[in-house]
Amino acid sequence: MATSGVNVLRYSALAFGVFYGFYHQRSLSAQLKANEINREFEHKENLIQKAKAEYTKKTMPSQSKTAGGDVITDPNDSNFDLEAYLTMKMADEAK
Q: CA 95, CA 92: separation in Å to the nearest integer?
C-alpha cells in the first residue's frame, strides 16, 4: 500500500493535469474562434472590394472606357458603334 504522501502527490498531479487540460482546450478554442472571425472578415472585405470595382466599372463615363477616348471598344456597351470600331481597327492595321 502506498503512503499518504504518495497518494497526495498522485492526486495533486491528477488535479493539475485536469486543470491544465481544461486551460489548454480553452486557449485552443479561443484561437480557433479568432481565426474563424478573421477569415470571415477577410471574405467580406474581399466581396466589398469586388463590388466597388464592379460599381466603378459600371458607372465609369464612356470616354474613359476607351483607349483613344473616341471609339467604344466594348461590344456589350449600349453606345457601341461597329462601323467606328472596324474603321479604327483597319487604321491600326494600315500603320
A: 5
CB atoms within 10 A of CB 72: 19
How far, in Å, CA of 94 to CA of 85, rounded?
14
| The pTM of the whole model exceeds 0.85 | no
Q: Specify the DSSP class assigned to residue 60.
A: S
For residue 69, the SS3 value is: coil
Length of the chain: 95
What is the Cβ-side half-sphere exposure of residue 45, based on CA atoms within 13 angstroms?
6
Q: Is 73 helix (H, G, I), strand (E, B) or coil?
A: coil
What's the pLDDT tens digit per position in 26-51?
999 999 999 999 999 999 999 999 99
